Amino acid sequence: MKNVLYSLSALSLLVTSQTALAQWSTTLTGASDYTFNGVSQTLNDPALQGSIDYAHDRGWYAGAWASNVDFGDGTDLEVDVYLGNYRELSKALSVDYGIAYYTYHGASYSSDSDYAEAYTKFAYQSSLGVSEANIWYSWDYAGTDAGHIITMIAHSFDIADGHTIRASIDSSNSLDGDKFMWQDNHKSYYHYRLAYQTAFAGFDFEIAAEDTDIDSKYADERVVLLISRTFSL
């Protein structure tokens, strides 16, 4: 399952919403693994992803994003739609907020996991880079009627012109343990990620090392490579 504005394709959307250089864009991404907060959504296999996005010069944006998935139950496609707004509160501080709806396809029961999620993200830019404080909340997580909240702090900084390091830590927490729990009856887990980002010949590249405190071969330490390209329409 995907947090909106978390993959390279979504990062491209965020840049578009800030600059309003193009109203319509599409992004194609190839990933060595599709991970959601450190948990593979493709049984550790590669993913092909794409989005189409609209950004208004007043900060409003909307879009749709899709990826192959594999949960081992016949579900093979995720399609997400989202609507949000990006605002600059000052020269240094910005906020990005919106709502997303995640849908799943492939088996007759795949749609039972569909759910909505609201998000708010703050970013502060200084001479040391960009610091983030982000939160996502769902009242029907994975179709279980459970409340669920994800919190993240992150920091990005340039090591050279066009070369960025992004470090983040996030926590996923079930608010209704009787309805949804993670592995071994844990109501929460942590995810750690360190990424290097750059661009070359019109392509965006990201290579990230990540890990969780879940004891699973689908959530253990790994290196993930993403290559994407965004086109203005």
Question: Could you describe the 3D structure shown?
Answer:
The chain is mainly beta. Helix content is 5%, strand content 58%. The strands form 2 sheets. A 12-stranded antiparallel barrel has the order 1-4-5-6-7-8-9-10-11-12-13-14. The chain has a two-stranded antiparallel ribbon with strand order 2-3.
Q: How would you sum up this structure in a few lines?
A:
The protein has 1 helix and 14 strands, in the order αββββββββββββββ. By secondary structure, it is mainly β. It has one domain (8-232): monomeric porin ompg (Porin), CATH 2.40.160.
What's the CATH C level?
Mainly Beta
Major beta sheet, specifics? 12 strands, antiparallel, barrel
**Low-confidence runs:** 7-20
Q: Kindly state the mean pLDDT as a whole number?
A: 92
Count every beta strand, where a strand is a DSSP E run of 2 or more residues.
Answer: 14
User: What is the beta-strand fraction?
Assistant: over 45%
Order of strands, main sheet, comes to 1-4-5-6-7-8-9-10-11-12-13-14
Name the structural class: mainly beta
CATH architecture annotation: Beta Barrel
Rg over alpha carbons: 17 Å
Total helices: the number is: 1
Shape: globular
CATH-assigned fold name: Porin
**Please, what is the CATH homologous superfamily?**
monomeric porin ompg
